[in-house]
Amino acid sequence: MKRLGYLILVILLAAGCSRSKDVRLQSGDLIFVGIPQDYNLDRDSMADAIGDATGNGSLNLIHVAIAEVQGDSVWIIDATIKHGVDRHPLDTFLTDFTFKDGSYPVFIVKRLKDNSKAAQFAENTKRFLGRPYDLWFLPDNEAMYCSELVRESYRPSDDYLFENKPMNFRNSEGEFPIYWQQLFARLGEPIPQDAPGTNPQDMSASPLLRDAAVNLLTYSTLPENKSAK
């Protein structure tokens, strides 16, 4: 009986440790930025155009970033129009994604089910630092967009963890949003419909990932803010 009680205690302690690890951000975690479908974005923004083209259900995932944890500090490595491929503190990331009304989007943290190499994958991103943002959304150029950075960095060997799929820039009516029309007209290039690539919405659904019960805002030193409803 004593032995049984001891085994139960060990199991409970192990489960408690597992849960406590699950709520702490870890290097290599992926942070997805979600916009509620009914949230009023500027109709001429890239975020709105991405949501129109790749949105699924009530939450449109428009960005993905990589976490790097060093002691009590949290760094974000991602690719954005504002910074290109850059490493910056968490608070910079949160400020960049704050809406005009002062609210935050929805932040979803996902973790590789096999997390043994996640920290190394996060380290891999640093070889791309300084590259410009890929406004062309094309593979095999020096520029990179957010989910492309993840795909190129999360490689255990010559293989990729995350697969390419034909990219879609059309909205639910089958039309190209005005943002994409204007952007690629300025670039002097056709919209790369069906070119191989990735997007945050599809990447978040990868069977290689699981949800991590991490509240990203608890790591911030910014004044308390609310997520968009």
Report on this structure.
- This protein has a single domain (22-219), classed as endopeptidase fold (from Nostoc punctiforme).
- Helices cover 29% and strands 21% of the residues.
- It is an alpha+beta fold.
- It has 7 helices and 8 strands, in the order H-E-H-E-E-E-H-E-H-H-E-H-E-H-E.
- It has helices at 2-22, 46-54, 90-96, 118-124, 146-153, 178-187, 200-204, and strands at residues 30-36, 59-70, 73-80, 84-89, 106-112, 165-166, 196-197, 209-211.
- The strands form 2 sheets. Strands 4-3-2-1-5-8 form a 6-stranded antiparallel beta sheet. The protein has a two-stranded antiparallel ribbon with strand order 6-7.
Proportion of beta-strand residues: 15-25%
CATH architecture, please? Alpha-Beta Complex
CATH class: Alpha Beta
Low-pLDDT stretches: 1-20
- Level of helix content? 25-40%
N-C termini distance: 52 Å
Overall average pLDDT? 87
How many domain modules?
1
CATH topology category name: endopeptidase fold (from Nostoc punctiforme)
Largest β sheet strand count, sense and barrel closure: 6 strands, antiparallel
- Rg calculated over all Cα atoms: 19 Å
Given the structure, what is the number of helices? 7
Lateral strand order in the biggest sheet: 4-3-2-1-5-8
- Large-scale geometry: globular
Please, what is the CATH homologous superfamily? endopeptidase domain like (from Nostoc punctiforme)
Number of strands: 8
Spell out the helices and strands N to C.
Answer: HEHEEEHEHHEHEHE
Structural class: alpha+beta
Can you describe this structure in just a few lines?
Helix content is 29%, strand content 21%.
